[in-house]
Every structure is written in structure tokens, then in C-alpha cells.
Design brief:
The protein has one domain: TerB-like, CATH 1.10.3680. The protein is about 75% helix and about 0% strand. It has eight helices and no strands. The radius of gyration is 15 Å and the shape is globular. It is mostly helical and about 150 residues long.
């Protein structure tokens, strides 16, 4: 799987530096967390898929085809993962608090893509808040910004 990810970023994005593997892993980890969020309520709907694709394209400046490939890999990783620690520890090591908070903002957008908050989604979001070391006030503010009126 890691070889497929590296090949994808090497061929499609022409990443030439040594950090390309790390950057690919970080993109995959964040996209996998977005899928984890979408699957938390056991209903991965089309609106959630579109929201994830839009967020990934926007955050990483990817073309549609590149985003689709990354998302397919991320969905596989999310379905095969036995926990969140592998994703969150990598992100914690390399992303600033601002970047991690941006990821949480994106996750709230996915949670509310279907205009409701499921108990499983809330539980997952609280767990991720702790794993990504997001302050409570920032977590609640992000939630309220994306909550439907």
C-alpha cells in the first residue's frame, strides 16, 4: 500500500524531494481521518463523499483524478485500520496546531454534511480532539461554526 501511495505522488505530482513520501503519508492520514468521520454513523452517503473530495482537492491543490486516487487509497486505509493512533500520531509529529485544527474543522463539515450529529460521530470527534491535542474551546468553536442553523 505504501508503495502505491509513493508511486502515485511521484508520478502524478512530480514530487522530487525526500519529503515526498512523508507528504504523501500525511495526505493519506488526513484523508483517512476524513473517511473515518464519514463512516462513524455507519452511513457513508454521497454527500459526505462529495464533501471529502472537495476538501481534499482544496487543501492539497489536487486535480480531480489525483484526488480520486488519493481518496480510494484513504478509504481503503480507513476501512483496514484497527485504530486512529497511526493516523493521528503522524499528523501530530508534522503538523502545527493550526493545521490540526483545520483538519478538525474539515471533519465537522463532514459530520454536518447530512445536517445531523449522530452519537457515534460525536464520540469519534471527541476522541480525535484528544488524539490531535486540540484545545476544548477551539474544538467547540469549530463545531458551532459548522452546525446547521
Amino acid at each position: 500500500m505504501i508503495d502505491a501511495i509513493s508511486d502515485f505522488f511521484r508520478k502524478r505530482l512530480q514530487a522530487q524531494d525526500d519529503n515526498s513520501g512523508l507528504e504523501a503519508s500525511l495526505r493519506l492520514a488526513s484523508a483517512a481521518l476524513l473517511f473515518e468521520t464519514a463512516m462513524a454513523d455507519y452511513d457513508l452517503g454521497e454527500q459526505e463523499r462529495k464533501t471529502i473530495q472537495s476538501l481534499v482537492c482544496e487543501q492539497f491543490s489536487l486535480a480531480q483524478a489525483d484526488a480520486e486516487t488519493l481518496l480510494a487509497l484513504a478509504e481503503d486505509q480507513a476501512r483496514e485500520a484497527t485504530g486512529l493512533h497511526g493516523f493521528t500520531s503522524l499528523i501530530n509529529q508534522h503538523w502545527s496546531e493550526k493545521d490540526r485544527l483545520n483538519l478538525v474543522e474539515q471533519m465537522w463539515r463532514i459530520v454536518y454534511a447530512d445536517a445531523r450529529l449522530d452519537d457515534h460521530e460525536l464520540h469519534l470527534m471527541r476522541k480525535i480532539q484528544r488524539l490531535l491535542h486540540i484545545p476544548q474551546k477551539d474544538f467547540v468553536a469549530a463545531k458551532l461554526r459548522h452546525k446547521p442553523a
